[in-house]
Amino acid sequence: TVRIGVMTSGGDAQGMNAAVRAIVRTGIHEGAEVFAIREGWQGAIQGGEHIVRLGWSDVSGILSKGGTVIGTARSAEFRTREGQLTAVANLIEKGIDRLIVIGGDGSLTGSRHLCLGWPEYVAELVEAGRITPEQAAQHPRLYIAGLVGSIDNDMVGTDMTIGTDSALHRITEAIDAISSTAESHRRTFIVEVMGRHCGYLALMSAIAGGADYTFLPESPPRPGWEDRMVDVLARGRAAGRRDSILIVAEGAADRDGTPITASRIQDVLRERTGEEARITILGHVQRGGTPSAYDRWMATACGVEAVRQVLDAEPDSEPVLVGVHRDAVHTTGLLSAVEATHRIGDYIASADYDAAVAARGHG
Ligand code: F6P
């Protein structure tokens, strides 16, 4: 019987459970055995009880739950050669050579690395007597499908990543709540949202929440932004607006790389207007709680396709990334998606913001 492993890795995201459920049930439906690898790549390294077979009813009732019931971790050990070797040995021990990884950029980059290195690792494990030549012959390749689970929406190859829509809903609710207290007191609030180096959550929530001003990593403000910001807020107040809301992405910075933090913006406002703006850092509230309907169906649809991909894979198949494009499930090469994603970081680091926005594709 074919054995499929499924893991969630890196930061959790709402909708990961929907993907796990779809993968387990589609796998069983297709006649495969599905194993959860608990705590992501860290669990693959630890092996033993971290790799457990899941049945149909083991994934009952998880569709609407936030987080990931099979656990996740950010594994430093997986970045080492020994960590990867041990993970390969444990997967082969369990007869798993088809893997679906639900994770962010870091987890998928590591997965791609292990996939490419698999034949070499297998040879080394045989040499060291850690697996038998028969085991090696049975599992000459690793077939991988990646699903992007991350609230950041920072990966090329999919229009949306699992969790982003839920996080956006959570942020929008928070902005609405903040607006009502801000209006009452005629106050200014600076709201910091997550997203690492990606401004998607900040931009979309600024639009959805009707914010006055936003700071994005891909579009650093030109020098003199302090005056322009104060002017925009003043004009809003002059027009009768009682609240001012600024959204700052956690990765926002000046063109010279100096971070634009909520407290820096607060200082600017204090110096120029005398107002003591309030700061709300939304933090992990954005990542927790119930997944939205979109994240549930999207993760389900991608999970079903990921199982098909690993079951239909041929020896010369490339690892794939399963995501969505124009509201339909879309499959692309994991290798090129990872490389294109990393290029965006390089563009931002070299201050080529237009190229970063164009490469992001949802600028
Ligand atoms: O990648 C998801 C994310 O929530 C980012 O938006 C944020 O920068 C980071 O993870 C926080 O990581 P941690 O949960 O390890 O504090």
UniProtKB/TrEMBL annotation:
Segments traversing the membrane: none
One GO cellular component term noted in the UniProt record for this chain: 6-phosphofructokinase complex
Domain of life of the source: Bacteria
Listed GO MF terms: 6-phosphofructokinase activity; AMP binding; ATP binding; fructose-6-phosphate binding; identical protein binding; metal ion binding; monosaccharide binding
Keyword hit for Nucleotide-binding: yes
Gene Ontology biological-process annotations: canonical glycolysis; fructose 1,6-bisphosphate metabolic process; fructose 6-phosphate metabolic process
Keyword Magnesium included in the entry's annotation: yes
Location(s), subcellular: Cytoplasm
UniProt keyword terms in alphabetical order: Allosteric enzyme, ATP-binding, Cytoplasm, Glycolysis, Kinase, Magnesium, Metal-binding, Nucleotide-binding, Transferase
Main location: cytoplasm
Function: Catalyzes the phosphorylation of D-fructose 6-phosphate to fructose 1,6-bisphosphate by ATP, the first committing step of glycolysis.
Family note: Belongs to the phosphofructokinase type A (PFKA) family.
Protein's name in the database: 6-phosphofructokinase
